[in-house]
């Protein structure tokens, strides 16, 4: 490198370089690029990066909670005006709960409850005041709702959907078999007091069927997590599926003949309380919502079971803001200790479940969250509403208020036990066996429904994406794709604001062999940095600008894996070092997918804020590009991207958003990505692995990898695929890539895309890709590099 590009020499011993595996420098070496400060940070820069993202998200979570009230534009001038003012939030909540494809009013029309005439339904059990029936109803295509109906012998004065905790089977909730029961045995007490009560079956937390025996795959994911992972990628949610089952019951109750309806209430405890609170918020037909064993601040949502993770949840609402969607209807909140749960299920030979904590809000925290909203409501004389009250678990006024709102007698005394009747439904089948069979059938039906949604998603994507493009010519195509790029960034990846700090580049020389290598740190936000290693060729002439390749590592990787000057690294084959040896400028960023659970929890913290891991990666790469184009030896028109594995995921997402990357190469990752995440019958599916951060909400209905590549188009795009790479199947990769090839051919630019299959595994091959880089970066030393350059 010419002396003009180097800072003044001084005695310098680089700190922490052994962490990068690049050795130490001799004394009196040049130590920084011009225009940059010396990098003095010691320790592991990757740890600095990931820890900083956690601090940023913690701070943003607090800020979002403080700003949330400004998002709710409430109009209390009349009941009608108020309903109109909250409806946009109600609709958005339905969307993020995965109910966008079937709004509540359509659900009511299409989900015909098939509760037959009770006089023709065999009685499961009875007492002097109640008869119990096993019931089913249409809830989702191919999925029955299942549960127990408790019918008073006299005319019902009110109707209740009671949602027990997930691990409490309806048979247990009604005292028909041993096991956990709801607090105060409330379903039986309500039925004896004159309520028609339906107790639905919820997906439980065991892991008995969380796998695929035919594939030899088994996990310790609770059934709720297993289904959540599948549903989330599809723009659905287990919570949404169960809420649609509840909505169907509410509609059936509302359809009863006049005089047999009474008020309709939805109540829940534990996991059922989560559903009850959401149900009351999204369904205005519910007259009374009762929540016990769940209510409080949700800023720690990332610690809770992952199946409670809801995209954008904390931006829209805490538990408190859900009150806005319930009023002016009645809401009772009873603070009780939630169910005691061990998570995840511990079974030998199983793994993959996301960590979770079941930590209840204290009574003070719960009451404070309640008062935070109630104090913002106008007085009852200005804005009439039904009762809205919070009770401590020991306050018996809760039961008095509940009885009064339902118009029933006192909820006192110990309810009588129901006596089982032997019928054809249960003959020779024990209660335990009935419980197991119902749970498995319910789980299997939801799996089958999820797989149908997965298969149908391709048509959804066609209607959402491909039908909106103008294929007349390249210019018209680029114009038509821009709104879709914006949607991808804002709604799928999650967009952070532009960098808030000056870059303040800091550099440290760490290698002076065939090229100069510098550690680099750039500021992005408070606590958030972009880091990496910059490789600068020797022998640059004054004013010469070289092509640059950003070479991205994969999961748990580091920049040194990509640009190691002394050895061919596993998987990567030091491909960045090979490119640097051929005279290209190379930058190897440190991406934040490192340190296992510590980084995966970033996704958990980010999703409720309408963000993802790639929200940060996009802005970090934007800052990297800003800095690279400022360097006098970088050609700003020839900056390419090339990534392996998780770096290949980056190659699909970041250049799809940041058009300054002139081309992108995806290695070891291009796939039928929706199937990879949600397919039940593929052993390599992320359903069976520990990568619980992998599903991206509603990706299936919007963008698969062909659609992401279409956002990169008309820039050059290439796929590198080893036949033996277990991340996917050749057939899947070829199927998805065929859509890309067809697009480029349709636009008359087929020469700008390519795929190379090679006999190998999950690794950089560096043959066709190097030639592709040479052609499109117009760099002759790369042309005809059979097997890539001779690396270290």
Write the layout of secondary structure elements.
Layout (H helix, E strand, L loop, with lengths): L36 E2 L6 H23 L11 H21 L4 H7 L14 E2 L3 E11 L2 E10 L5 E6 L6 H4 L12 H7 L2 E6 L10 E2 L4 E2 L4 H11 L4 H17 L9 E6 L1 H12 L5 E5 L20 H4 L2 H8 L3 E6 L27 H12 L13 E5 L4 H10 L12 E2 L10 H34 L9 H21 L11 E6 L3 E11 L2 E10 L8 E7 L6 H5 L11 H7 L3 E6 L6 H10 L6 H18 L3 E11 L1 H12 L5 E5 L5 H6 L26 H8 L4 E6 L7 H17 L6 E6 L9 H10 L15
Parallel strand pairs: 1-14, 5-6, 5-9, 9-10, 10-11, 11-12, 17-18, 17-19, 19-20, 20-21, 21-22
Antiparallel strand pairs: 2-3, 2-13, 3-4, 4-6, 7-8, 14-15, 15-16, 16-18
Helix pairs in contact: 1-17, 2-7, 6-13, 8-10, 10-11, 18-19, 19-21, 21-22
- The oligomeric state of the chains shown is single chain
Helical content stands at: 25-40%
* Rg, nearest Å: 30 Å
Described by strand count, sense and barrel closure, the largest sheet is: 10 strands, mixed
Strand content: 15-25%
What do the pLDDT scores average to?
90
Number of helices: 23
Report the end-to-end length measured between terminal Cα atoms: 21 Å
Strand order of the largest sheet: 1-14-15-16-18-17-19-20-21-22
Shape: elongated
Descriptive tags:
792 residues, alpha/beta, 10-stranded mixed sheet, 23 helices, 22 strands, disordered N terminus
